[in-house]
Specification:
The protein is of the alpha/beta class. It contains eleven helices and 14 strands. The protein has a single domain, classed as Metallo-beta-lactamase, Chain A (4-Layer Sandwich). α1 links the parallel β4 and β5. α9 packs across α11 and α10 packs across α11. The chain is globular.
Length: 328
């Protein structure tokens, strides 16, 4: 299903379904010009996403030989089909940091480190092998890595005479990137700002405080003049700047909640902290959460714990290979 959402330049949205996933869909954007086209993000590496994306590109009569791709970040629902869709030798733009993480994930090195981290935070070790098969971030990743043209903050990408600016917005991933068309005050947000759900902020190997990075990136993008904001999932039916303030407030409240739970339960681990927090899961309690949703919730809890640790509000102590947290 395709929809034209902007003119001059002509921008289309391909609705890519994400089956059995709370995100519901991936918004693949296509900028179409006489000289060159640009695809932004792809969907998971699964048949349903592949068919929807191919049908959408066919409907739009996109000549893939004069088409490039921009990937906002490394998550599988955004990069899953890049290698399958793009012709050999075509430019695929991606932030350098995220591309390096992506290659490590495909090789398996980063996943091993994440597994060890989750176990050290109290996640049930017997569930990790199961998650390797069922977690969509792993199960629906590309089959192999692809070559990318790495870009950095401030780099320009020209599409049919329109100049887009790469804006580094780390947080959701270490190298998340938005794409901004200054002449139209239009921005492709990826997962940096979503409008009816809150982007997941988790910990990352070699990143000290991903939540602080995310908050700083929100404040950075808040200073940009934006009239049209295009998110990576679902829809945008509210003011861009109001939504930024809402997300900042959400994390302020989440930090307070996390801190309260640790104060009330000294010596608690991250997994049990997550189990006491409030999550939007259709009224389900923690015991009823699907294990892969617990994985996302624990990752986000760790990010908030890292923030509180950096502020000196809490301390951690290892015990039998598990980190336990208490108030300072």
């Amino acid at each position: 299903m395709t929809e034209q959402i902007y003119k001059n330049p002509d921008i289309y949205k391909i609705y890519v379904p994400l089956p059995n996933n709370p995100l519901k869909n991936l918004n693949c954007y296509v900028i179409k010009t006489k000289d060159k086209n640009l695809i932004i993000d792809t969907g998971f590496n699964i048949e349903e996403c592949y068919n929807a994306l191919k049908e959408g590109l066919h409907e739009l009569e996109i000549d893939m030989e004069k088409t490039e791709m921009f990937l906002t970040h490394l998550h599988s629902d955004h990069v899953g089909l890049a290698g399958a869709i793009m012709p050999k030798g075509a430019n695929i733009y991606m932030d350098k940091t995220d591309y390096e993480y992506f290659v490590n994930f495909i090789q398996g090195e980063s996943w091993d480190a994440i597994d060890r981290k989750f176990i050290s935070e109290g996640f049930p070790a017997d569930q990790i092998p199961i998650l390797r098969q069922t977690n969509p971030a792993r199960a629906f990743a590309p089959d192999e890595s692809f070559e990318a043209v790495t870009v950095k903050d401030g780099d320009k990408i020209n599409v049919g005479g329109y100049e887009f600016t790469c804006i580094s917005t780390p947080g959701h991933t270490p190298g998340h990137m938005c794409l901004y068309l200054e002449s139209e005050k239009l921005i492709f947000l990826g997962d940096h700002v979503l409008f009816d759900i809150t982007p997941n902020i988790t910990f990352w190997s070699h990143v000290e405080n991903s939540l602080l990075n995310y908050i700083d990136s929100l404040k950075k993008i808040e200073k940009i003049d934006v009239e049209t904001a295009l998110p990576g999932h679902r829809k945008n039916d509210m003011d861009f700047y109001v939504r930024i303030k809402e997300i900042l407030k959400h994390h302020e409240l989440r930090l307070a909640e996390c801190y309260r739970i640790i104060c009330e339960n000294p010596g608690i681990n991250a997994y049990d902290t997550a189990g006491r927090m409030q999550w939007s899961m259709r009224g389900r309690n923690w015991q009823e959460f699907p294990m892969h949703q617990k994985w996302f919730a624990v990752g986000e809890t760790i990010a908030h714990i890292d923030y509180l640790l950096a502020e000196g509000k809490i301390k951690k102590q290892p015990e039998n290979g598990i980190y336990l947290y208490s108030a300072n």
